[in-house]
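User: Can you write out an input/output pair for a complex, sequences first and structure second?

Assistant: Here is one pair. Inputs:
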Amino acid sequence: MSAAETVPVPAAVPREAAAGRRRPSTGVLIAGGWLAIVALAALVLPLLPGFDPLHGDFGNPAAAPGPGHWLGTDAGGRDVFQRTVAGARASFAVAGLTITVGMLGGGTLGIAAGWFRGPVDKVIGFAADLLMSVPTLILVMIVVSLRGPSLPVIGILIGLFTVPAFTRVVRAVVLSLSEQGFVQAARMIGTAPLRILVREVVPHVAPIALTFAFTATTVAIVAEGSLSFLGFGLRPPEPSWGGIIAEGRTTLGSAPWISLAPAAVLCLTVLALNYLGDKLRSKGGRG
Amino acid sequence: MTSPVLEVRSLDTTLHTPDGRTLHVLHGIDLTIDAGECLGVVGESGSGKSVLARTVLGVHPRTTRTTATGSVRLNGEDLLTATAARRADLLGTGVAMVHQDPMTSLNPVVRIADQVTESLTNRRRMPRRERLRTAAELLAAVDVPDPARRARAYPHELSGGLRQRVGIAAALAGSPALLLADEPTTALDVTVQRTVLDLLDRHRETRGLATLLITHDIGLLYGRARRIAVMYGGRIVETGPTEAVTENPAHPYTAALLRSVPRVTGPLRRTLPAVAGSPPDLSKPIPGCPFAPRCERAQAVCSTDAPPLHRAGAGHTAACHFPLTPSAALPATAEETAA
Amino acid sequence: MTPTALRTAGRTAGRLGRAGAVLLLVTVTALSLPHLMPGSPALAALGPTATPEQVTAYEAKLGLDENVFAATWRWLGDALHGDLGHSLSTGVAVTTELADRIPVTLELFVAAQVVALGLALPVALRSAWRPGGAVDRIATAGAFVWLAVPGFVLGLLLIWITAVQLRILPATGWTPFTEDPLENLRHLVLPALTLGLTEAAVFTRTLRSQLIDTLDQTYISAARSRGMGTARLLLRRTLRPSSLPLVTLIGIGVGTSLGGSVLVESLFAVPGVGMLVSGAINGRDFPVVQGVVVVSAVAVVAATFAVDVLYRTIDPRIADERR
C-alpha cells in the first residue's frame, strides 16, 4: 500500500469526546469492582501455594461457611470457595474462546455481507438462518459427547453459535456506513476497498464489538454452566460452575451453600457484565 | 345575543417537560367564538397555537405535565375547573379536534369504521353492523366516495386527502359544539387543501359549529374565518375581523406576516421579505412585548412594560405600544413603491 | 391471478424453498454426526470385541456405509413414510418415542408461554402507561436482575424454596394429564415457572419499549380526544400495533425452548423430548438423536412460518407490502 496519497481520504471517524471526564457512577464502580475481584481471584489465587480445589478435607464434609472455609465445604470436604474460584477460571477461559471465535467469525462474515451484498449476503444470511434453526444446546451437547468435553471444544462451539447474531449486527453497521457520503466519496476517488474498510468501517464496528464481548461472555458463562450442569461440561472433578452447582443438588436441603454459593457468584458476575454492557451500549455503542 | 360557544379569559398555560424545563407557553389568552363562527388563529411554530388547542381540548402528551390558569368556558361551563370525568365526557361530544397529519392520526391496525365511530362507541356499545352503517353515513357526509367499502378498509389503503376527511368525520361523529382544527391541511397537497377546507366550512354552516382554525398560513383564512387572532410568543398580539386585520394590520408582527405572503397579483418581488431573528425562548418569562427584539418600531419601553390593548377599530384590537395606524403604516419596500 | 396474489405466491414459494433447503441441510448434518466421532462409531458402540458382521450390521443400520447424500435420500424417504428408525438402546421406534414425549414438552412450552405472557402483559402495560412510576421502576430493575439468573439456577432456587423449605410442591417427577389432571398441574408448576419467568423478563422489556413508542403516536391521543377510556385505549388500540416484536420473540422462543426444555426436563425429571435426547446423546443412540434434531428443525421452521402469518394478521400493512 502506497504511503503517499494524492488525495487524503476524509477522516470521518468522529473523535469521541474524551471519555472518563466525569466520575463513573456508583453502579459502574460496583459492577466493575466485582468483575475485577472475580477476574483477579481467578487469575492469581490458583498460583498461590495451598490452593487445591480437588483436595477433600474428609474430616469436614458439608461444613457450613465459616472462618476456615469461606463458602463451606461440599460433600467430599472440598473447599467450595476454592472450587468456585477454579470454576471462574474455566468460565472465563471459555468466554475468551467464545469472544475470539464470535468476533472473528461474525466480524468477517458481517463485513463481507454488508460490503459485497448481493449473492454473498444471501449466502451468509442463509447460513445464519441454518445455524439458528438447529437447537443450540442440543447440538453442542452432541458434539461434546462425541469429541470429548475439552475447553477448546466447548469454547469454540459456543463461539460458533454467537456468530449469526454478531454477523447481523456488523452487517447492519456496514450497510448503513456504505450509504454514508464519506465511504461513497472514498470509493469514487478510487481508494482501495481494503483501505476504506480499515480506516473508515472498522473503527465504527469496534464499539459494537466491545458490547458484543460483554454479551458473548455472559452467553459463554451461562452456556458453559448449563452444559456442565447437565454433565456435558468439563469432567469432574475439574471444577466448573455448572458442575459444582449440579453436585450440590442432592444436598439442597441439608447443605444449600454447596449449590447456592457458586450460583450466587455466577449470577452476580452475569449481572455485572450485563450492567456494564448496557451502560456501554447507551454511552457510545452506536457509532 | 346568544352566549358564545367558547369563551377563553386570561388563559395561561405552563408546560413542565420530562427533562425538567418549564415553558410558559401561553400568556393571557382571551378569545371568544360564537356558534357557526370560524375564528382563525395564525402564528409561526412556537407561537403556542397548538398548545392553545390542546388546552381547550384537555388532552396533552403523556410525558409533559401541564398547568393552566384562567377560564375556558364551553357553553358557559368552565372546563379548567371541571372534574376529569366531566372533561372526558365532553371529549368528542362537546369539543372535538381534527389533527394535523393524516398519516399518523389514524391507527394503522384498526379499521376505518371502528375509528370513525369512536366518539359514539366510547359511550355505548354498537354492534358491528350498526358501526359499519354509521361509519358509511359519516364518511358520505364528508364526501368520501364509495363510503361503505372505505369504512371496511384500513388507513393505509386511503390517500392523505381521504384520510383527512376520515379525521374530520371522526371529529364530527359525536356532534360536538366546538371543533378545533389544528393545521388540518398542512400535510396535504395544495389542490386537496381547498376541498378539505370547503368541507369544514360546509359543516360549520349546516351544524352551527364553532370552529377554531389554526394555521401558519394566513392566506388560508381569507373568506373562511370571520375573525382572526394572531399569536406570537404565547400571546395574542392582534385580533379582529379578517378584512380589518389583513387590510389594516395594527400590530407590526401581523404586518410583517402579511408582507411575507407570496402573492400571485401585485408587484413582482424578487426577494420574499422575512422577519429577522427567531421566536422567543419560552422558558423565561417575558416582561414586555415578546416581539420587541425583532420589531422595527420597538423602543425601550417595549422590552420592559407589557403592551396595552390598542383599539384599532370595531372589534379590532392589538397589543402594542406603537401600533400601526393607517397613516403610520410600515414603510413600503422599494419594490412595492416602484410598481 | 391478480398481481398481488402472484407476488404472494412467489414469495411463499421462495420461503418454502428456503425452508426446504434448511431442513435438507439439517438432515444431512444430523446424519453425518456419527462421523464426528474419532475412530469407528461402530467399534465405540459395540466394543472392541465386536465381530465384523456386527460392525457391518451397525454401519448399515446407521447408513454409515453409504455416502451422505444417499443416506439422506433414504432417510427422508423413510421419514415420509413415518419411519424414523429405531432406538439403538431400547429398540423402540423413534416415532413412538417422540409421540410419547412431544405432548409433554408441548404442554410445558404452552404453560411457560402462559406464565410469561400472563406476567408480561399487565406489567408492561402498567409500566408503559406510567413510565418512571413505582411499577415501572420495580419491573425494570427486577427484569434486569432476573435475566442474570440462568435457567438451571432459577430451577434450583425454585426447588429449594418450594420443595425443600416449604414442601408444597413436588421437586421432580411427572404425572400425565390424562391420568390425574391435578397431580399433573402440581408437577407442571415448577418447570413452567422456570421456563416462563425468564421469558417473562424478556417479554416485559420488549413489550414495554414498544408500548411506549406506540403511546407517543398521534393516533393514540386522537383516540383519547374522542373520549376513549384508558383500559379500552390500552387493550384495544395500543396493544396490537405494539405486539410485533413480541410475536417474533415467541417464535424464536420455540427454538430456544428446546434447549431450555432439555435443562428443565433434566432438572425436574419431566419425561419429555429434552430428557429423551439428553439420554440418547449420552448413550450414543444416533437414530433418536437424529430424529429429534430434524423434528426440532421442522418445529422451528414451522414456527417461523406461523410468525409470518401472525404478522400479516396483526398488521394489515404488511400483507399489502411490496417486498
